[in-house]
Write a structure and sequence with these properties.
The complex is a heterodimer of chains A (about 270) and B (about 350). Chain A is an all-alpha fold. Chain A has helices at about 1-25, 40-65, 70-95, 105-115, 115-135, 140-155, 160-165, 170-195, 215-230, 230-260. In chain B, about 65% of the residues lie in helices and about 5% in strands. A two-stranded antiparallel sheet of chain B has the order 1-2. The chains are: A mainly alpha (about 270), B mainly alpha (about 350).
């Protein structure tokens, strides 16, 4: 009981701290962006953000892998990550329209079927492995891993809801997953924008400045998002809906069948 | 270096230190003169790696592609940021985002950001070129052995899955399904998913039969979780102190506390994991020498810029463009990033 509580506390703390480091411009009217005389803190911020997100990812990976206690989990995760990395590899070679990416389809379904820790690892590891394979390792990787991990982790919340409504295996399940995919298609872009938005300089109605209020920050970010990202993210969102609507029912059947098969237990033979 | 001699690869930690130093340089300064020096150092190492002077694998990342971001950054910034006092011209009309004054300050700021991005692109190419995937995975602390195994399995399976994609495609085309349209793609995805999961099942059986188990001691888990919470406390404290502009020493102490807590925790957790090393990679004197130049610069930058907040790297073209300061001694320090190349050439 205490162990579970502590585990949840670690997950909750790292998630909240990660959110906080992404959302700090909204809560920092007094924040000094360019103190005299050096103007150093502006350039330090991406470094600080990468440090905090990196440590949060470390904590979440450490905690999530505690559930990887057996070979079945490790093998299943490894192969699903490989499958998703191949999809990302294809996406890098032949980019889809806008921000369309096929990787979220399996991340969402994995989190939904196998639980929040599996979902987090699936999201984070997909980005990690595909970054290694495509030479995309960079300072942006912790935030990508973190956000993709959240997609998988939050998908687990749909499972009890759909069970309670009795939608398992029905069209309602696909619709719920498609809506979830559409929502995360937009939110993923909105979160990833926050990585660079506070450090950009531009028209005053779209960019962050130290000292502005919460409402003003929200309004400026809203305008920035509408102007620069909405169309791009709609591609990802619609792509998720399309993939889930057409492929999820069959894929879920296959994954459920294998989930049953993966519950095998080896018993030592008595000598 | 003698002709035909293939240099021995450096230890992965050398390249990690090198890349961390480059990233820190780029993060700390927007002085275009210092950035040019850093870019030149990275470009020399990049060129040497491309010519086979350093051991590595990937195809060279073209210079022109990395340099393209400099004019692109300048143009984009000049067209969208209408700030500054040295006006080049005024873009008339009511075009959203674009109309307004085009300034030299915005051009310089955009080009400087482009230069920083160019350094990052080249540095990551050099890193990816010189650090093999197994070396990269070996750098993961043993505390993350499950994650490393998942990564290893995934990387091993990718070529197999690519081959299966081709085989399924050929089989479907022979049956008359040319796989156009999303629904037809099911005929590709489903067999691929099923065969992948079959592979996973076989692998799980083999791993279980050979006794794969998590080897971390569960008795320590509560302690580790507690330590994580303490680390989060430090991290939150550091973040809030920066947020409210508390003295920099307090901020650095709290961030340092967080990093130390996480470091000790991972070190302790790693010691609980027993692993068998099949191919050990020794850290030789040559590696230490190659690392020393970067490490010296890294420590100097952390101490001077982050702890003492010395303003020697600071520069901004806004609000009025001025000539950036340039100290040859500081510029010479950046030459420390050439140490892997120098060691590869002479040792």
């Amino acid at each position: 009981m205490l162990e579970r509580l502590m585990s949840n506390l670690v997950i909750l703390s790292s998630t909240l701290l990660g959110c906080f480091s992404f959302l700090y411009p909204f809560f920092s009217p007094q924040f000094e962006q360019t103190p005299s005389p050096a103007g150093i803190r502006v350039s330090e911020m991406p470094l600080t953000m990468t440090l905090i997100l990196g440590l949060c990812v470390v904590a979440l990976l450490f905690e999530s892998q505690q559930s990887a206690a057996n070979a079945r989990f490790v093998a299943l995760m490894g192969v699903l990550v490989a499958l998703n990395s191949v999809l990302r590899y294809i996406e890098v070679a032949i980019p889809g329209p806008g921000g369309f990416s096929p990787i979220f389809f399996l991340i969402i379904l994995s989190g939904y079927l196998f639980g929040s820790k599996f979902g987090f690892l699936m999201g984070a590891m997909t980005l990690f492995v595909s970054a290694i394979l495509t030479g995309g390792v960079g300072p942006w990787l912790p935030s990508q891993m973190f956000t993709a991990g959240w997609v998988g982790m939050s998908a687990a919340a749909l499972s009890p809801l759909i069970s309670r409504l009795g939608w398992q295996g029905k069209i309602g399940e696909t619709v719920a997953l498609a809506v979830f995919g559409a929502f995360w298609g937009l939110l993923y872009g909105a979160i990833m924008n926050l990585w660079s938005w506070p450090f950009l300089i531009g028209p005053s109605d779209q960019y962050w400045q130290p000292g502005i209020s919460f409402a003003e920050t929200l309004a400026r970010y809203g305008v920035f998002y509408l102007v620069t990202s909405l169309t791009w993210d709609l591609g990802r969102s619609l792509g998720n809906v399309l993939l889930i609507a057409t492929l999820a029912p069959v894929t879920l059947r296959v994954l459920r069948r294998f989930r049953e098969r993966f519950t095998f237990v080896y018993l030592a033979a008595e000598v | 270096m003698p002709e035909g001699h293939t240099p021995a690869p450096f230890h992965a930690w050398v390249w990690l230190t090198w890349m961390t130093t480059i990233l820190l340089c780029v993060s700390l300064t927007r002085n275009p003169l210092y950035l040019v020096v850093v870019w030149l150092c990275v470009a020399i190492v990049h060129a040497a790696a491309g010519m086979g002077e350093l051991a590595g694998g990937n195809a060279p990342f073209p210079f022109w592609l990395s340099l393209m971001v400099v004019p692109l950054g300048a143009i984009f910034n000049a067209l969208t940021v209408h700030v500054g006092e040295r006006v080049i011209f005024v873009l008339p009309g009511e075009i959203p985002l674009l109309s307004g004054i085009i300034t030299w300050e915005a051009v310089v700021y955009g080009a400087t950001n482009g230069l920083a991005l160019s350094v990052i692109l080249l540095a990551f190419w050099v890193f990816n070129h010189n650090v093999s995937i197994p070396s990269f995975l070996r750098m993961l602390p043993r505390a993350f052995h499950s994650v490393a195994i998942v990564g290893s399995i995934a990387i091993t399976f990718v070529p197999l899955l690519q081959r299966e994609v081709r085989q399924i495609q050929e089989a479907q085309i022979i049956r008359g399904n040319n796989l156009t349209g999303l629904r037809n793609k099911l005929a590709l995805l489903l067999p691929l998913l099923v065969s992948s999961l079959e592979h996973a099942f076989q692998l799980a059986e083999v791993m279980t039969a050979r006794g794969f188990l998590r080897s971390s001691a569960s008795s320590h888990q509560m302690l580790w979780r507690g330590a994580f919470l303490v680390g989060f406390g430090f991290l939150l404290g550091g973040w809030l102190s920066r947020f409210w502009g508390l003295p920099v020493l307090a901020t650095n102490f709290l961030f340092g506390g967080a990093m130390t807590t996480f470091g000790v925790l991972i070190y302790t957790a790693s010691r609980q994991v027993r692993t068998t090393v099949y191919r050990s990679t020794a850290f030789r004197l040559r590696d230490a020498l190659a690392m020393s130049g970067c490490a010296f610069l890294l420590i100097f930058l952390i101490f001077q810029s982050l702890i003492l907040e010395a303003p020697f790297l600071a520069y901004t073209p806004y609000p009025v463009l001025t000539l950036p300061p340039f100290d040859p001694r500081v510029a010479c320090l950046f030459l420390g990033t050439l140490s892997p190349l120098l060691v590869a050439a002479f040792l």
